[in-house]
Amino acid sequence: MPSDYDFRNKFALLDVNILSQMVKEKRAEKFRPVFEFLKENNAEIFLTDATYFEFTAFSRTKKNHDFLENWINQFTIVTSGLQDIKSASLLSSYYTHADSQLNKKQISYCDCLYGAQLAKYKGLAFIVTTDMHDYPISLFDIAKVMIVEDGQKAVIVAFITFNEEKWKIISGRFDKSVYDGK
Amino acid sequence: MDDKNDTVNIVKDEPRRNKFNWKNFDLDKFFKDTEKVGEIIKERDSSKNAE
Predict the structure, then answer these.
(1) What's the pLDDT tens digit per position in A63-82?
(2) Rounded distance between C-alpha atoms, residue A57 and residue B41, angstroms
(3) Where are the beta strands (DSSP E) in A8-124?
(4) ipTM value of the model?
(5) CB–CB of A13/A125 below 8 Å?
(6) Which secondary-structure segment (H or E) carries A22?
């Protein structure tokens, strides 16, 4: 696991799953060390529009919707254009190309959008996730992990970074790949 | 990576800065609000599942 990644002044992409973990069972406070680490490094937190939808959609009342919207609007929201969606689609193909045994149910469209954002901003950004399996190490690095303890439970928070060398290898192989006849 | 292969949108610019700023971000309030968000989402998801 590389540990020389410089987190200072970078963009921290908060995966939807870390927010989902935080809102469960009133345990947000347990994640304070993660946010202190981001603060120490002056990381700018941002989210994708898919995460915005995930948290604000299907509200039963306007009051609830407004509360959720104000909460999530504290962060920078990046909107996905057609090129980002195309990138996410291609990225999912890289995943499958790199690992034919990949469980496609493991990785969602939202995960691929995050991966595409990471590839887009290369060394400028990193993903903070509670499921490192969403970002295959065939393409990405795990630069840091933190353990969030909550009683008998432990949540592993992984900091995922872009690896240009891995990227070149997989994308190069993919570009040369042909129909396999199956 | 040449242009032909660079179909995954790799750029050198950055996301828009300064929307989020730690100086204006109250961590204590954020964690407190996050607990409230949890309550709203729990209620929302339970009603969605009941339908």
Answers:
(1) 999 999 999 999 988 888 89
(2) 10
(3) 11-14, 44-48, 76-78
(4) 0.84
(5) yes
(6) helix A16-23
Instruction: Count other Cβ atoms within 10 Å, centred on residue A112.
Output: 24
Q: Which of B10, B21, B29, B49 to mutate to test the interface with A (most CBs of A within 10 A)?
A: B10
The helix (H) or strand (E) run that includes residue A127 is strand A125-129
The overall average pLDDT reported for chain A is 90
CB proximity list for A33: less than 8 A, separation 6 or greater? A146, A148
Confidence of residue B6 (pLDDT cuts 50, 70, 90): very low
* SS3 track for B4-30: CCCCCCCCCCCCCCCCCCHHHCCHHHH
Å from B30 to nearest chain A CA? 8
| Residue of chain A whose Cα is closest to the Cα of B30 | A71
What's the rounded Cα separation, in Å, for the pair A122 and A132? Answer: 18
Is the whole model's pTM more than 0.80, yes or no? yes
Cα–Cα dist A27/A38, whole Å: 18
d(CA A90, CA B1): 15
CB of A67 within 8 Å of a chain B CB? The answer is yes
What is residue A61's three-state secondary structure?
A: coil
